[in-house]
Amino acid sequence: DDANTNGYTVVDPATVISTHMSELVKKNAEDLLTRQEVQVLIDKIRTDFPVIIDDVLKVASIGLIQRVLKALLHEKIPLKDMLSILETIADIAEYTKNVEIITEQVRAKLSRIITQMYAGQDNVIRLLTFDTSSEQLMLEKSQEQDGLRNLLLNVGEINALIQATSAKATELLQKGISPVVFIVDPQLRRGIAEIYERFSLDVVLLSHAEINS
Description:
The protein has twelve helices and five strands. By secondary structure, the protein is mainly alpha-helical. It has a three-stranded parallel sheet.
């Protein structure tokens, strides 16, 4: 009663524990997804969509599917549209078993879900972009190898990227804009995302292909 009188929000212990557990599961979903869990998930989907499951298992092992799903969870992409995920894996795994390539294609297929994740109540998604010259420089600094484009920046260029991103993210967070979302060329997304993760930058990096207009 005293807490309520003083304007505090009172939450019962059960709600605190369940909320905490839910956040823990979300945070560690990638580690909790075992091959057995993937198999159970596939078996459930097979009941209603046997053709999709047959197609994907012709070209992708349970282990490959698991690695793609874990890669999605690693960047907090939900797995609620499993049909689209499995259909895309079936299409792409016929030509390559590279997890990074498949994952980027799946992300593009999930553009509607990804856009909804970061759109505000007005259904507008607020994005930051790199200026044209910076993005062009990074494209020139990238090389394609085995179907993937690797971003080859030197130490000075990486530091400049981190400092500029961090400064802009801090500016937006101080204005109450969260999360901070950047959008880049699809060929650059994975490479820049890896750099941001290495430096523990708490920003979201999307590609143009992941925005549902």
